[in-house]
Specification:
This protein has 472 residues and is of the alpha/beta class. It has helices spanning 3-13, 32-38, 42-45, 50-53, 62-69, 114-136, 154-166, 183-193, 211-219, 235-238, 254-266, 292-297, 303-309, 325-341, 350-358, 364-378, 392-405, 408-411, 415-419, 426-444, 449-456, 460-469, and strands spanning 17-22, 27-30, 73-81, 87-99, 102-112, 173-177, 201-205, 220-221, 232-233, 243-247, 268-269, 278-279, 283-288, 312-316, 345-348, 383-385. A hairpin with an 8-residue loop joins β11 and β12. α21 (449-456) packs across α22 (460-469). The radius of gyration is 35 Å and the shape is elongated. The structure holds adenosine-5'-triphosphate and magnesium ion (MG).
Length: 472
């Protein structure tokens, strides 16, 4: 094999920095990426004694340390200032090279993490800024109290009662409910009914970011924890004395779930890079929009964390199972929207109301709110909200429901119109209805007798007899 070609490839094409020294500390391989990181040129380092070239590394060089101890040092964060004076952060791993158990050299591989680190820092700063502005407002970053949660269904009244009792303690709460059922407003209401109400309420969505960022965000970082890291309080510390809401807890990586469990058990944690533990007094409210037992079964939620969070379980039922709430919520949203859009409506068409009671509302209260807002936008002032004002997907659902809930041939017939003609005898009435049904079926099936008979549920012969009898 052509060794030079391999060395050429490593020198010029690999994005990781590579530095190899022999047992004397002389550099055997030093690629251009490593040279860029360290602000050197490969020629200045190659075949030279490491400490001669970089005397500042005396006592610090990981390559020399590994050479001396024979033990690897991995995931070591380092900072360099390159030729242009730009700060570069890397994660370095250094391993001994051994032959017959003897250390004959060491290799160091460095990966540039400058961009990743910048992203983390920007993110942490922005949450800090948001938090600061919240603090300046005296923590008034919550809007809702239990009184804002409308509905008089036994289910919602029960949920409100549990929330109210839970607000009197510091126990963790797990809120479970479909999307748009009001989980967040319950969480805010618990905080605002508690004696933590004048302390911070911080909400974080665990699905929104990768594990490494989320960990830094929750636990905070300490200067020296990794290069470029500054002392930055994590959300747990920022929420001290108040409430931390962890939304979509099931999206939290399992490793972090374990760390969170420890915080819940001990009220203590160690910020990243810190040697000291911090003690905090934070009430945790967690939210999941998926069935927790199924999540445990699927390995998405740690069972021990589930039990620890479930000191209080608050289940918010879906809107479709909450009888009576639809009417109250509908009126409430219309009132708010009339104000907001500076428009009034005279009423909602009965067809729409009937449909609302049949519709499954997969997006729950939020969907109702949006559907009404959409309708109020397009209905004329003092108008009636009709089917035409509903969103496209709902109209489709409406037609499917009406098709399946009534036999198709009855659908288009106004039986009452015929019956209202009271000059006819009962048998004449029935004949009229029969005639109309047959005509409808024939038209729908494009005058195919077999298909029409089938849709009417009679035999072909019977249909032919009736067609003759009614001269259709
Ligand atoms: N019982 C209620 N009374 C008044 N408004 C409600 C009620 N339930 C929900 N809402 C309103 O519905 C919207 C959705 O509520 P919220 O954000 O709390 O839902 P969620 O369960 O957290 O939804 P998601 O799972 O999608 O995050 C909000 O605008 C909220 O004000
Ligand atoms: Mg929510």
């Amino acid at each position: 094999m052509d060794k030079e070609a391999i060395i050429d490839l490593i020198n010029n094409n690999i994005k990781e920095g590579i530095h190899v020294i022999d047992s004397e500390g002389t550099t055997l391989l030093y690629n251009s990426t490593m040279a860029d990181f360290e602000g050197m040129t490969p020629d200045a380092v190659l075949n030279k004694q490491l400490l001669d070239v970089l005397p500042s590394l005396q006592g610090k060089s990981t390559l020399i340390k590994v050479l001396e101890t024979g033990k690897s040092i991995t995931m070591n964060r380092q900072t360099y200032f390159n030729k242009d004076g730009k700060q570069i952060s890397t994660v370095n791993s250094t391993w001994p090279i051994k032959k017959h158990g003897k250390v004959i050299g060491a290799v160091e591989i460095a990966k540039d993490i400058t961009i990743i680190e910048k992203t983390v820092n920007n993110l942490l700063s922005s949450t800090e800024t948001i938090q600061k502005s919240k603090e300046n407002k005296g923590y008034k970053n919550t809007k809702y109290t239990l009184d804002d949660i409308l509905g008089n269904s036994p289910q919602i009244l029960n949920a409100k009662q549990i929330a109210n009792m839970a607000s009197k303690s510091d126990s963790s709460v797990l809120i479970i409910g479909e999307s748009g059922t009001g989980k967040e407003i319950f969480a805010q209401s618990i905080h605002n009914a508690s004696n933590r109400k004048n302390k911070p309420f911080i909400a974080e969505n665990c699905a929104a970011m990768p594990e490494s960022l989320l960990e830094g965000l929750l636990f905070g970082t300490t200067k020296g924890g990794f290069t470029g890291a500054v002392n930055r309080a994590g959300l747990l510390e920022q929420a001290n004395g108040g409430t931390l809401l962890l939304d979509e807890i099931n999206s939290m990586p399992l490793g972090l779930q374990a760390k969170l469990l420890r915080v819940l058990q001990e009220s203590k944690f160690r910020p990243i890079g810190s040697t000291k533990e911090i003690e905090v007094d934070v009430r945790i409210i967690a939210i999941t929009n998926k069935e927790p037992l199924k999540l445990i079964e699927d390995g998405m939620l740690r069972e021990d964390l589930f039990f620890r969070l479930s000191v209080v379980n608050l289940y918010i039922p879906p809107l479709k199972s909450r009888e009576g709430d639809l009417t109250i919520l509908k009126q409430h949203f219309i009132k708010i929207l009339e104000n907001k859009l500076n428009k009034t409506i005279s009423r909602i068409d009965n067809k729409v109301i009937e449909f609302f009671y049949k519709y499954p509302w997969p997006g729950n209260v939020r969907e109702l709110q949006h559907v009404l807002e959409g309708a109020l936008n397009i209905v004329e002032n003092n108008g009636i909200i009709g089917l035409e004002h509903l969103p496209y997907y709902m109209k489709r659902h409406f037609h499917n429901v009406s098709k399946t809930s009534e036999p198709s041939h009855l659908n288009k017939i106004n039986t009452l119109n015929i019956l209202e003609n009271d000059n006819l005898s009962l048998s004449e009435h029935l004949e009229q209805i029969e005639k109309k049904l047959i005509k409808e079926a024939m038209k729908k099936e494009e005058y195919n007798i077999t298909k029409s008979a089938k849709s009417l549920g009679i035999t072909r012969q019977n249909l032919q007899y009736k067609l003759k009898k009614f001269s259709i």
